[in-house]
Write a structure and sequence with these properties.
single chain, alpha/beta, eight-stranded mixed β-sheet, six-stranded mixed β-sheet, 14 strands, 40% helix, binds adenosine-5'-diphosphate
């Protein structure tokens, strides 16, 4: 079965075409700069990248470009879009309405449009345009929605309720939802598999998964189920991120609005785009640039790194408390997979939780080709794993299962 995975963002549509029988990626790419000018970057394993400046005035044109490039005689990998059996979409926010991956129907589109748009205004609009584009160019191909929020549906009420009047929960659905669920699910399942090989009962494991990218979140996964996570009502909550604040004293928000004269919308943009590591370092939201600045002796860059490590360490400690212990910590995503200094600094001092790393294994984690790299020290009772995430594969698998009627 061939499954096309679509991740439609505000100015880009990323895609991956899977052959599910072989679990192979046939092609992947990105339609960038939608609404600005437009560029299509198309990658086929074993071939040079194909890059084309194609005008992309909207998401419908982006989907059309994906159709064109996948079926292109020279750069394509299929003859016709009829060879694609299903499309899986990454959807950021399903609110309380979607807690499982779902086949697209007119009713599903209506709920996404009318109920989920307000919950994630930056994401839901582009998702709907991506679905609309697929309906336009592949009207007979079944589409499935896979939600970032779904994995966290198992959080207990005491973890997801905020201390606001109950009527706001009823009226506005204000509660913690959590995000990056597809990634937390994938890496926690892999970690659970590794722990099972060590004789642990997978229904009783206590794992903290750290998804650290431009957006970052941490989850407490007990017996394979999410029981708490750092992001909340929106992906702005939790630890410090590239350009997002993470958690703040809520009074800071009204204080800045009052003093700077921001509208609520401007404040929301400010907290998403002008804060986080970018604000503390004064250099960049990108960890690679922060690392370069640290190496050059920049103190603010080092401070940004320290704030992030301290945040992560505190979440690990609090989630170990929430789960009554800790069997493994998992690092994943751009920073988690690629930054040994950060991993060392985070785990340093957690010996009281019986967890420590082997510095050599940690430094060389990238060299191992294993899907689960154990970087724990020999006497560490809890394990520390580096596990590259693969959200697209989870989306493709869910899509395949739903279309085959297995789910
Ligand atoms: P997103 O959240 O947008 O999916 P990623 O998971 O790619 O982002 O993470 C982006 C972050 O990871 C950036 O701070 C970047 O510097 C860092 N990063 C990504 N790849 C590498 C790498 N190969 N080496 C070091 N840092 C990396």
């Amino acid at each position: 079965m061939y499954v096309l995975v679509i991740n439609a963002g505000s100015s880009s549509v990323k895609y991956q075409l899977f052959d599910m029988d072989k679990k192979d990626v046939l092609a992947k790419g990105n339609c960038e700069r939608i609404g600005i000018d437009g560029r299509v970057i198309h990658k086929v394993p074993g071939k040079p990248d194909f890059i084309s400046d194609t005008p992309l005035p909207d998401h419908s044109h982006a989907i059309k470009s994906i159709v064109d490039v996948l079926t292109n005689k020279e750069h394509g990998v299929i003859n016709s879009m009829n060879e694609i059996n299903a499309i899986g979409h990454r959807i950021v926010h399903g609110g309380p309405y979607f807690t499982e991956s779902t086949l697209v129907t007119p009713d599903v589109i209506k709920i996404l449009d009318e109920k989920c748009r307000d919950l994630a205004p930056l994401h839901t609009g582009p998702h709907l345009m991506g679905i609309g584009g697929c309906l336009e160019y592949m009207p007979n191909t079944p589409q499935v929605l896979v939600f970032d929020t779904a994995f966290h549906k198992t959080m207990p009420k005491h973890a997801y309720l905020y201390p606001v009047p109950r009527e706001y929960y009823d009226k506005y659905k204000i509660r913690k939802y959590g995000f990056h669920g597809t990634s937390h699910k994938y890496v926690s399942e892999r970690a659970n598999g590794a722990l099972e090989k060590l004789g642990k009962n997978p229904d009783e494991t206590r794992i903290v998964t750290c998804h650290l990218g431009n957006g970052s979140s941490i989850a407490a996964v007990k017996g394979g189920k999410s029981i708490d996570t750092s992001m909340g009502f929106t992906p702005l909550d939790g630890l410090i991120m590239g350009s997002r604040t993470g958690a703040l004293d809520p009074a800071i928000v009204t204080y800045i609005i009052d003093n700077e004269g921001f509208t609520p919308k401007q404040m929301y943009e400010f907290m998403n785009k002008n804060c986080g590591l970018l604000a503390v370092s004064g250099i960049s939201s990108d960890m690679r640039e922060i690392e370069d600045a640290i190496a050059a002796g920049n103190e603010n860059a080092k401070l940004a790194f320290d704030v992030l490590c301290y945040d992560i360490k505190k979440f690990i400690g609090s989630y170990a408390a929430a789960m009554g212990g800790l069997d493994a910590v998992v690092f994943t995503a751009g920073i988690g997979e690629n930054n040994p200094d950060l991993r060392e600094s985070v785990i340093d001092g957690l010996q009281f939780l019986n967890i420590s790393i082997n510095k050599e294994k940690n430094k060389n984690a990238k060299k191992y080709k294993d899907p689960v790299v154990d970087i724990s020290s020999e006497n560490s009772i809890g394990k520390v794993y580096v596990i590259p995430t693969d959200e697209e594969l989870v989306i493709a698998s869910d899509t395949e299962n739903i279309v085959k009627g297995l789910k």
